Amino acid sequence: MDISILAIESSCDETSASVIHNGKILNNIIASQSIHQNYGGVVPELASRAHQQNIIPVIDQALKDANIVKSSLNAVAFTQGPGLLGALLVGASFAKAFAMGLNIPLITINHMQAHILAHFIDDPKPEFPFLCLTVSGGHTQIVQVNDYLEMEVLGETLDDAAGEAFDKSAKLLGLPYPGGPLIDQYAAKGNPKAFSFPGTNTPGLNYSFSGIKTAIMYFLRDRKKEDPEFIKNNMNDICASVQAKLVEMLMIKLKKASKLTGIREIAIAGGVSANIGLRERLQQEAERLQWKTYVPEFEYCGDNAAMIAIAAHYKYLAGIFAEYTSVPEPRMKL
Ligand code: KG4
Ligand code: ZN
Fold first, then answer.
1. Are 136 and 98 in the same domain?
2. Which residues of the chain fall below pLDDT 70?
3. Please, how many CA atoms are within 13 Å of residue 187, restricted to the half-sphere of its CB?
4. CA 52 from centre of chain
5. Residues 215 and 111 occupy one common structural domain
6. 307 and 289 within one domain
7. Does residue 334 lie within any of the structural domains?
8. Among 168, 184, 272, which is best to mutate for testing ligand 1, by the most ligand atoms less than 8 A from CB?
9. 17, 58 in Cβ contact below 8 A?
10. Ligand 2 centroid to 134 CA: how many Å?
């Protein structure tokens, strides 16, 4: 039987829709919200309003592009959590109404699980079990993935997420939101050994990024006392050094997880997996430790509905459907 699913993502500041047909992604329409740049971070209420404006055009375009009529859809999927409540509500309400109107099943998706399952959109696909370092604006997790829908969190951040650490460092440097991609760009032209920052020692496989943020803050304060133009004159080197430190912190625990589990199939996912410094470092470690690594296409690193669609495909195959009364779960766990 043919399976066509419409998937919707609205957990943060991207409104996205995707159609998947028999496990193949037909499109991935994303409307980003630039309004948050004026505020230095995502403003939840503004995100909800923008989702409301964007959701119909985005879904219309996804269906038109896929050349699919509503009546031939087999299910509708949406991000149930984690995310911002008001933002999630827009996608959830739309998906529920749509599924009820068409009298087809509803599928709820965990956003973090979807980031990981994005690895099953294209080849090469990881083999089970594999480890996935999921690094986004809201989460940092090392996950052991035993099957499509069977995942176990081995370690996670105790405070800030890796993306948050990038964004907050960027803010200290006077860069606009989201600063992660900008740090990446400046870092490409800088010396990663120019400056060093102290790391934090967290137990087991957990992370902590709040200390490094404070260390960077004091470092910049002291240097600016000596040279008010310090940031401007050293932007590339500062970004390269900050990035190298954050990447090193991410890699230490990932290597530890691989050693502890004996798993050498290693993937990265989430917004920060677009980071060039992290990708390069992963490649170097892969050669040294004989890892087989998996890095998502840039299109599937940040928030997108294609990852929701592929997750929905596997849930559909497993026969896991949700009630029409399902509600968003902003703090949903993996
Ligand atoms: O997964 P994502 O799009 O949204 C969440 O689920 O949070 O991740 C967004 C995060 C932001 O913190 C952003 O700055 C970061 O990913 N990010 C990057 C890069 N591209 C996006 N951080 C470092 N380097 C990048 N190239
Ligand atoms: Zn995300």
1. no
2. none
3. 26
4. 22
5. no
6. no
7. no
8. 272
9. yes
10. 9
Domain count, the chain: 2
Residues 262, 133 share a domain? yes
- Single-letter amino acid code for the residue at 132: C
70 falls within a domain: yes
Q: Are strands 140-147 and 130-135 parallel, antiparallel or unpaired?
A: antiparallel
- What domain range is 254 assigned to? 125-295
Q: How is 131-200 classified by DSSP, letter by letter?
A: EEEEE-SS-EEEEEEEETTEEEEEEEBSSS-HHHHHHHHHHHTTPPSS-HHHHHHHHTTS-TTSS-----
Q: What is the share, in percent, of the chain residues with pLDDT greater than 70?
A: 100
Quick one: which ligand is closest to 13's CA? 1
What CATH number is given to the structural domain containing 274? 3.30.420.40
Give the pLDDT confidence score for residue 199 in this predicted structure. 80
Total-model pTM: 0.97
Dist CA 279 CA 295 (whole Å): 8
Q: What is the largest CA-CA distance in the chain?
A: 70
Q: Are 269 and 113 in contact (CB under 8 A)?
A: no
**Ion ligand 2 residue ranges (Cβ < 5 Å):** 136, 303
